[in-house]
Amino acid sequence: MVDVEILGIGITWHGKPAALNVIRDISSRVKGRQALVEAKESAEYANRTKSEFLANMSHEIRTPLNAIMGFSEVIEKEIFGPIGTGRYREYAADIHASGAHLVSLINDILDLSKIEAGQMKFKRGRVNVARVIEASTALLKRRAETGEIKLAVRIGKDLPALKGDDRRIRQVLFNLVLNASKFTPDGGKVSILASVSAQSGLRIRVNDTGIGMRQEDLQTALTPFGQVMAANKPDITGTGLGLPLAKSLVEHHGGRLELQSKPGEGTKVTLEFPPMRLVA
Which of 52, 74, 183, 263 holds its CA 20 to 30 A away from the CA of 34? Predict the structure, then answer.
């Protein structure tokens, strides 16, 4: 069987109307198009399978971790009686802290998997942006109170509410503030600013004077599991999930995330939500 393409035009031949038909073999083109469709479907299936696997594995790992965290906390706080040796309490505290870190990591993996698989459900409500920003700064208050860093929070007057999922917007801000805190050394500054305008909508900006990134590393930082290693701070590591997850969550709220950074000067993350997402 051969795939053909027939092109016909009307002509005049010796004073009489006639038709000129051109028949062309397009078998190779059809096969190439079919191959592209099959490759696309295969890639989508592989990506969906990966996301489902990660989601299932995340649940499987999180269940025993919750037990580890619970029992380690019981031991650390000596709920059923004294342990006897202080070092055991320290070990229990370390186990609990490690478990909490793993649960946080698994939650991020699970969220990314749900987003990629199109299974994440978002609640519709009113997000008090000012309150969310204030809550996110709790991560920095201890360092600010001890003078390790300077903290500046500037929120515009009469900031409107945002249509969206309060929990997810909190997750975005906590991730961004956590990154700013992690990569800003003592003596640095972290600023959180929020403003609104009728034309551009809501803008939230998290600035830090930390170690920063090179221009060529910005795309890596926005890629899941993409880790940007800092030459001047090799001891600072991350999972490479915070920024990609924040970007995906913002985009699911109709907004966009912009990342700017320079080595030695710090990083600026800007969130923009269109006017249609705001509630007066």
Answer: 52
What span, in angstroms and rounded, lies between the C-alpha atoms of 137 and 142? 10
Listed in order, the ranges of the chain carrying CATH 3.30.565.10 are: 125-279
Q: Which CATH class is domain 125-279?
A: alpha beta
Question: Are the CB atoms for 227 and 211 separated by under 8 Å?
Answer: no
Q: 3-class DSSP state for residue 267?
A: strand
Over residues 153-157, mean pLDDT? 87
**Residues forming CATH 1.10.287 domain(s) in the chain:** 29-116
Which pLDDT belongs to residue 227? 64
271 vs 200: CA distance, rounded Å: 11
Phi/psi of residue 40, nearest 5 degrees: -65, -45
**Backbone phi, then psi, for 84, in 5-degree steps?**
115, -40
pLDDT at 202: 93
Contact residues for 245 (Cβ-Cβ < 8 A; gap 6+)? 108, 111, 112, 115, 171, 175, 224
Choose between 257 and 66: higher pLDDT: 257
Partners of 192 in the β-ladder: 153, 206
Please name the residues in contact with 197: beta carbons below 8 A apart, sequence gap of 6 or more: 203
**Sheet arrangement for strand 201-208:** 150-155, 189-197, 201-208, 266-273, 256-262
DSSP string, 37-90: HHHHHHHHHHHHHHHHHHHHHHHHHHHHHHHHHHHHHHHHTTTTS--S-HHHHH
Q: What CATH code is assigned to 29-116?
A: 1.10.287
